[in-house]
Specification:
mainly alpha; MetI-like fold; 13 helices; elongated; Amino acid ABC transporter permease; transmembrane
């Protein structure tokens, strides 16, 4: 290799970029995560004497409410000409109504992220052996893997959560575990939701990984066996590292799926983002404002997850093996 010719590692490093086509979106996400981290630090880490009360927002709502009333009155006096002012007054009124609910939604977002990360991480641990059994296992293992994935993918996630929470003695078993629901340890319903999301995500991830493994040339395993590796070692050291790169786009889809469908945990009393928004809306009757605000939270989480997975895909890509095609 000449001194001027880039190595494979150099090629990989030079392709790692951050999406700058949407600078305003990046600025908005930076502001969102900055506020969220400060809010979590205030609510969970700082002692009471040094922190804002957990139900008190960092921002006052009164100035926005006063501005909305003033602009609304001005718009009414101008008639049709004041329509733009009326729209601005509505936006300011939305902000004024949303500010008091931000602390509760921040706590709900913490549980939403916890459910998503735990579900996809633990699901991956189950998905790898399921997919390997489906592709390389014997008839019995293939049948068991196929039966599990089809059962889970063929039934609604909400029904699975209900069976785990109401139909099985899982709640009583978890409740007897020392420390559950104490301090930072999640309550019983959260653990049931994590188990439900893990079992559900494992089935979908197994299918993504199965298709990725089948995309690897069959000669790769044959070559691994020819140099003395066992079948298991060939799969572990040769096939999986290549196949998992092909599965990253599927993981991106699964991550987005789990972020949105984590809202189903509200139906088994988990106080995640949707549960918090619905509870506040039921108390204040401001359903439109609260659900729009919750949707903005979910949108920020989904866009953040998509950008993260794009970065992971570029970081792990190897020329000729998975990853994005370079122009």
């Amino acid at each position: 290799m000449s001194a001027e010719e880039p190595s494979v590692a150099d090629e990989v490093r030079t392709t790692v970029t951050v999406d700058t086509d949407r600078p305003w979106a990046l600025v908005g996400l930076a502001a969102f995560w900055g506020w969220l981290l400060v809010r979590w630090t205030n609510d969970f880490l700082l002692p009471d004497g040094m922190a804002f009360p957990s139900e008190q927002s960092f921002f006052p709502a009164a100035p926005f409410s006063a501005a909305a009333e003033s602009l609304g009155a001005t718009a009414a006096s101008l008639g049709l000409v004041g329509a733009p002012l009326d729209v601005l007054a509505g936006l300011l009124g939305f902000v004024a109504g949303a500010i008091p609910s931000l602390p509760a939604l921040a706590r709900g977002a913490w549980l939403t992220i916890l459910l998503t990360v735990a579900g996809i991480a633990f699901g991956f641990v189950l998905a790898v052996p399921l997919s390997v059994a489906r592709v390389y296992g014997g008839r019995g293992l293939r049948w068991l893997s196929l039966s599990y994935t089809e059962l889970i993918r063929g039934t609604p996630l909400l029904a699975q959560l209900f069976v785990l929470y109401f139909g099985l003695p899982l709640t009583q078993i978890i409740r007897e575990v020392p420390g559950v629901g104490v301090g930072f340890v999640p309550a019983t319903a959260v653990w049931v939701a994590i188990i439900g999301f893990t079992l559900n995500s494992a089935a979908y991830q197994a299918e993504y990984i199965r298709s990725a493994l089948e995309s690897v040339d069959v000669g790769q395993l044959t070559a691994a066996r020819s140099i003395g590796l066992s079948k298991v070692d060939g799969i572990r050291y040769v096939v999986l590292p290549q196949g998992l790169r092909y599965a990253i786009p599927g993981w991106s889809n699964e991550l987005v799926y789990l972020i949105k469908y984590s809202s189903l945990a509200a139906f088994i009393t988990v106080r995640e983002l949707f549960f918090q928004a619905e509870s506040i809306a039921n108390d204040t009757f401001r359903y439109t404002e609260l659900f729009v605000l919750a949707a903005l939270f979910y949108l920020a989480l989904v866009v953040s997850a998509s950008l993260l997975m794009n970065l992971v895909e570029e970081r792990t890509s190897v020329p000729g093996i998975g990853g994005k095609r370079q122009a």
